[in-house]
Amino acid sequence: MFDILTSPLFYLFFTILIYFLFALLLRKTKLPIFNPLLWTIIFIIGYLLLIIFWGHGQIDEAGIEKEVDKYQRSTVILDMMLSPVTVALAVPLYINRHLVKENWLVILVATIVGVASSFLTVYLLSLALNLDKSIMLAILPRGVTTAIAKEAAAIMGVSVELPITVSMVVITGVVGATLGPILFKLFRTKDEDDLLIGLSLGSASHAVGTSKAFSYSQRAGSIASVSIITNGLLTVIVSLIISVFVK
User: Fold this and answer.
1) Which of 9, 66, 170, 209 is deepest in the core (most CB within 10 A)?
2) How far apart (Å, rounded) are the C-alpha atoms in residues 144 and 202?
3) 162-200 b/e with 16+ CB inside 10 Å = b?
4) Burial of 46 (0-12, 13-18, 19+ CB in 10 A)
5) pTM of the model
6) With 90 as the cut, is the pLDDT of residue 238 above it?
């Protein structure tokens, strides 16, 4: 029984099942607190800790490393899908290319402000918390989707700390997609404000925010997709500039 519950196939399908259950719950309730990515992370962490305790009688560092490594190898196909999914964002961008032509200045300003504020807040917090330079560089590209963030971090010389980059990207996406709708209500944003909603969620919480933007409207989701691409491009450019000074 224990072998079945820790098998690669079970880990993979359990992850997918949890995600789709909360995606369905989110669709039914419309409550941002039921963000499927957030609850999938919570359930998987809890499940792995339970498995480690069940198998070792205690939760220790060696057990965590072993089980997490097994889980990552079991779900590697999900990681492999990140790059194709990111590239696929070009489809809604092409279909809605007229939106870029109509709102190019707003999109440009939002991109510059979004990337600048993301990098600046990480830099200031790193100074305040006295973080190592390598950790700071790993966190800097947190505002873009995982595939782009990993490449941007690698450009800046990040290698061992790449898991930190991935973790911060996920946290940023989940927090942005969860708090975004709450802030929209707080500032009385209308559902028809597709440009504002799309640029906000796309800039602040990349792919996770974009999926949330599509729940408002096709236009908001398309604008968020555009924001992901423009933010990603600018992030890579800034990363290249930073890499020169780091070296």
Assistant:
1) 209
2) 9
3) eebbbebbbebbbbbbbebbeebeeeebeeeebbbbbbb
4) exposed
5) 0.78
6) yes
